[in-house]
């Protein structure tokens, strides 16, 4: 394909992976990232990288060695508790092929792999318009011309409205994000084990997940009206904590300890795009990752899908075919994402239900015997 100067909007793992793959093909991608630097915002917790998607992408990018050096195969365990603190499921098998890696570490591996100057930081985009057979992308005091534009800019993509009228819809569940240092929170570390802990009861859930460098990320999840979720987002950390005390009253003390001791990070309402989201192909524009198929994290597929999208989109852009190769990429990507989105929606409904713990236990046991 003749397309050479490609704007990738968004510097998350999917956008950076696409840039890496395109550079290996001799193309000239530019990543436009609204953050002023890589450390401006927390990058989230730990990611499990699947062999057929995330790990395959790292292999294709020539980054498998760097990934394996940073990955944590020892942290693939799962624990399940009920609200009374009874341990119902405990499995830790380091040979499972879904090693963990911190999102921030994965992002840094990808950043380090790019030609210096590939990522332009502090580029908040206010305009994307067709011009001279391509697109002008601009913001406050700057604009640049590109042959093609890829939206890898997440839930509230500025590229998506050029292709689709779809908007993310609130899923009815909000997570409160918490942070723990193992050295200061030995009880939460013991509760978590090697990997992830999930405690479920009557439309509520507590999650802790071991990260690298002695950290644990935690989440308290509850069904809330969207208006209330927005209100919580305006509260202080201590006010949110008091609300969580009320929500989780009666839970086992060791589980309530997660709420009491965690460092408050933020309120995260969960949004998702329609499950079968797709759009009419338009030359010079496309999407990947959450910009194309935002879903809840309860399928464990998010970053893996984004990396798989990047591999297939890079191959399509390298094709000698015309933009129809991108149309084929979009059909394949949307079909794959539909399956994952259905699983994510079902997972969310199962956990946040009156009988959530039974559903999760059944799922865990089925996965072991699959």
UniProtKB/TrEMBL annotation:
GO terms for molecular function: FAD binding; monooxygenase activity. The keyword Membrane does not apply. Residues 6-319 form the FAD-binding domain. InterPro entries: FAD-bd, FAD/NAD-bd_sf. Keywords: FAD, Flavoprotein, Monooxygenase, Oxidoreductase. This is Monooxygenase. It comes from Acetobacter persici. The lineage of its organism: Bacteria, Pseudomonadati, Pseudomonadota, Alphaproteobacteria, Acetobacterales.
């Amino acid at each position: 394909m003749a397309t050479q100067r490609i704007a990738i909007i968004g510097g998350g793992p999917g956008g950076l992976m696409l840039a890496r793959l395109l550079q290996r093909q001799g193309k000239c991608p530019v990543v436009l990232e609204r953050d002023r630097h890589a450390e401006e915002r927390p990058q989230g917790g730990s990611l499990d990288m699947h062999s057929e998607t995330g790990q395959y992408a790292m292999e294709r990018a020539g980054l498998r060695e760097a990934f394996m050096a940073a990955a944590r195969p020892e942290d693939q365990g799962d624990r399940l508790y009920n609200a009374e603190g009874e341990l119902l499921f405990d499995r830790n098998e380091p040979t499972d092929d879904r090693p963990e890696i911190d999102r921030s570490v994965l992002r840094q591996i990808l950043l380090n792999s790019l030609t210096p100057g590939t990522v332009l930081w502090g580029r908040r985009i206010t305009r994307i318009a067709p011009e001279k057979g391509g697109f002008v992308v601009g913001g406050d005091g700057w604009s640049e011309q590109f042959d093609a534009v890829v939206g890898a800019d997440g839930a509230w993509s500025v590229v998506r409205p050029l292709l689709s009228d779809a908007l993310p819809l609130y899923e009815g569940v909000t997570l409160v994000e918490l942070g723990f240092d193992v050295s200061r929170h030995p009880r939460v570390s013991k509760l978590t084990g090697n990997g992830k802990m999930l405690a479920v009861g009557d439309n509520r859930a507590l999650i802790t997940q071991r990260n690298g460098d002695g950290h644990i990320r935690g989440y308290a999840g509850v069904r809330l009206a969207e208006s209330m979720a927005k209100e919580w987002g305006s509260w202080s950390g201590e006010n949110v904590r008091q609300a969580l005390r009320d929500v989780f009253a009666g839970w086992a003390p060791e589980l309530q300890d997660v709420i009491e001791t965690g460092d408050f990070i933020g309120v995260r309402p969960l949004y998702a795009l329609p499950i079968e989201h797709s759009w009419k192909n338009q030359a010079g524009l496309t999407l990947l990752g959450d910009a194309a198929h935002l879903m809840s994290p309860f399928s464990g597929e998010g970053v893996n899908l984004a990396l798989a999208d990047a591999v297939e989109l890079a191959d399509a852009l390298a094709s000698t075919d015309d933009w129809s190769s991108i149309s084929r990429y979009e059909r394949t990507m949307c079909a794959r994402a539909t399956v994952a989105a259905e699983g994510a929606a079902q997972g969310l409904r199962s956990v946040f239900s009156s009988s959530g713990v039974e559903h999760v236990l059944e799922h865990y046991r089925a996965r072991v015997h699959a």
